[in-house]
Amino acid sequence: MIFIYNCFWGTHSSSLASAIHLNKLPFDRITTKEEILKTDYFNKLSYKDMGRVIYRGIDEEGNKVFTLGRGSSKVLLPCLENLISVFHNECNLKEIDFIGVHLLLIGSQQAYQHIVKVVKQTKETAKTTKEPVLVLNNRPLG
């Protein structure tokens, strides 16, 4: 199976989700600010990277994990199923100042448990589906 985690920029929550999925960040505790800053691509992508599918690694089940910055596109999410099928078949963020990064880290830590829930839900759903392509719209969990 192929996993594509997506968010607006493709550099914050999707970077954290892919790192959690690949066991590079913990499931059982809120990560530290230092761990967040060391996460691949976290706060390192720019506007020109939006729409770019970025390979993040292979998980423990042998599945490929990618991320994608989708922006405010209303057409990209419906197209994800086709994009995954193709794979299956064969604001400049660098300019955020210190205060902005500090607030970004606080927000990331506050959202961390939700991101862990999304990753767990995604992995569990993948284990039980028989569909070759599955697009999950991981809205806030209760």
Describe the structure.
This protein has helices at residues 13-21, 33-38, 76-88, 98-128, and strands spanning 2-7, 53-58, 64-69. It is built from four helices and three strands; from the N terminus they run βααββαα. β2 and β3 (64-69) form a beta hairpin. The protein has one domain (2-128). It starts with a strand and ends in a 14-residue tail after the last helix. The protein is globular. The model is unreliable at 86-96 (pLDDT under 50). It is α+β, with helices and mostly antiparallel strands. α1 (13-21) packs across α4. This is DUF3189 family protein. It comes from Desulforamulus reducens (strain ATCC BAA-1160 / DSM 100696 / MI-1). Pfam families: DUF3189.
Secondary structure: helix percent: 40-55%
Strand content: 5-15%
* Distance N to C terminus: 26 Å
- The tally of strands reads 3
Query: If you compute it from the alpha carbons, what radius of gyration comes out, rounded to the nearest whole angstrom?
Result: 15 Å
Query: What is the number of helical segments per DSSP (H or I, 4+ residues)?
Result: 4
